[in-house]
Amino acid sequence: MPQRLTPISPDGSELTIEALRQVAPSCITEVKDPWSGATRQVVDFDVLRILLGDQSVEAGTEMYSFIWPGKQAARREAATPITDTLRPVLEDSVDWDTTENLYIEGDNLSVLKLLQRSYVGKVKMIYIDPPYNTGNDFIYNDDYTIDRDTWARQSGERDEEGNQYRKNLDTNGRFHSDWCSMIYSRLLLSRSLLTDDGVIFISIDDNEVHNLRKICDEVFGASNFVAQMIWERAFAPKNDAKYVSNSHDYVLMYARQIDNFKIGRLPRTAEANARYSNPDNDPRGVWQSDNLSVKTYTPENDYVITTPSGRRVEPPAGRCWRLSSKAFEERLRQNRIWFGSDGNGVPRIKRFLSELRFEGMVPTSILFHKEVGHSQSATQALNKLMEGGYFDGPKPLGLLRRLLTMANLDPDSIVLDFFSGSATTAHAVMQLNAEDGGHRKFICVQLAEETPEDSEARKAGYKTIPDIAKERIRRAAVAIRNDLENEKVRAQAKFAKVAMGEDVDKDPELWDNLYDDVERNQAQERLDSIDKRKESLDTGFRVFRLDSSNFTNVKRTPAELGQGELDLMLDNVKTDRSGQDLLYGAMLSWGLSLSLPQAVTVVDGCEIYNVDEGALVACFAKAIPTTVIEAIADMDPRRVLLRDSSFASDKEKINTFERLKQRLNWDDKEALDKVRVL
Description:
Blueprint: E1 3-4, H1 12-23, E2 28-32, E3 39-43, H2 45-52, H3 71-79, E4 85-88, E5 102-105, H4 108-114, H5 116-119, E6 123-128, E7 138-140, H6 148-155, E8 165-167, H7 175-191, E9 194-204, H8 209-221, E10 225-232, E11 248-255, H9 270-273, E12 287-291, E13 293-294, E14 305-306, E15 312-313, E16 320-321, H10 325-333, E17 337-338, E18 348-352, E19 366-367, H11 369-372, H12 375-386, H13 397-406, E20 414-417, H14 424-436, E21 441-446, H15 456-459, H16 465-499, H17 508-514, H18 517-536, E22 542-547, H19 563-569, H20 579-590, E23 598-603, E24 606-611, E25 616-619, H21 626-634, E26 640-642, H22 650-664, H23 668-674, E27 675-677
């Protein structure tokens, strides 16, 4: 008999047990539930304590920790499963059938829970720009002391879609605690999504940076801290500042596993290359000199060097040479020691640009506005793109581009932003792909916060922040594709002009070079590269919206229900839900990516959904004839999903199950694993 596919997000405790199984399998055991009789896996704490030995501590012992009111409730909230789902919104999407990008509207705490099965260990980079808790910015309100619905009724602070929100004013006695609980639960969920070599960046200001550092140390591990970077947010002081004009924000950077993470290096700049020269016409190219002495004193490296002019030079007091006398003589023979143009200077070692250990430049902890942009330039650029000022405080595109580089993304990496705001992250990912031909994907998550009634955004028809963001992505896509087309036109025109002999007198060197085979091939490769980038560029996005369960009366978690009661409650599909709704809800439950391609085939009036050429084949018709089952089997599915109410009886369901087994040559275990009903 096929089993039901549960429409409930993963239980956080189950994920923790699975993680423990990987490192300490002997502490995992099974117990029998006294009510249902089913066995479940649990942790034997006595065994775990033995494994930890002296590395464990009992409750009540003095220890270093960061505690605030509501922390334990926030941790429980992150682990609590939900019955919500993500519904596809095809009318707001762009290139639905081909795109691999996602834009999700809804509370990010719930969305992060729903993404756990499908995206665990798959996200290379996370960037978030959460509320800074200034007392005026929008903040999510997850209540950690009373029932959510009770809190909502008491406060009356829900929007039209039932989302909870409020201003976190400093008159609130839990000003810092509320913010810490909000960010803590979300970071706990985000960590499991990162790849082993993944990294997270978090923008923040002085209000909560001290608390955020402590929270990140706990969630990601202090040993995985990479940097606390300073972004030069403003380029001019504010003369009306009460004390000091604050010109910076921070970007915290943590790796998932620091030993696996490799920083992405920045392209070398003309300014950096200008530091290299070749005053002695060394055939190895340009170089710069470096101090030959070091602070760490070694007697063997304390010796006298005689310069070409005959002057005897000793290391500075308390220092020694970085090279032994033997190594120095070897470098001297190789012409790697510089004594100045007159041969009388203190010896220095030559570092050649062509011999640098790494390509590119190491990033610095200060993000200067002249390199990555500032708040005003970001606002101006977005206003120009949108033809109006509809969003306050966007991050500059250059800042996100710098972070994407530092994350050392692979060409097909996934980038997640679950406080996506104006969708700068999506814009930056598309632009990077346009430049280097990559296939990186973005997942943006944003609460459907309403724009103020009297705002320019509302007057222009943007009712919510996601409305602004989706339009920004659409316009950015057009601009990026136009830039690529213009790049191609310029390359074609330049090639054609010179090849036809025009402007030879103005640029004879260019004329000669183009008739060199190597140069001609390079010019053609550039044109080919532009065509490939245009063809492969993904500027679409699938839109999903967080909603309640696809099934009626699902208000409680499995822990509150007996299996028989759960089966009865999950049988009824809500009348307003489509086959697409059921399909993507099932993909989340089965752990399949929401960006996978799909096709729809109609057989005897029944729609058959085929996800990723057989990864999942589903049919939700009210009655499924034998021809449909045969068509499903012909698709060579790896998973099959059917609607339970499609079968008139258990006998019919069993017969269908057996038919699939025979057609697909599955044994009982395979069939039980691969066939599910809703």
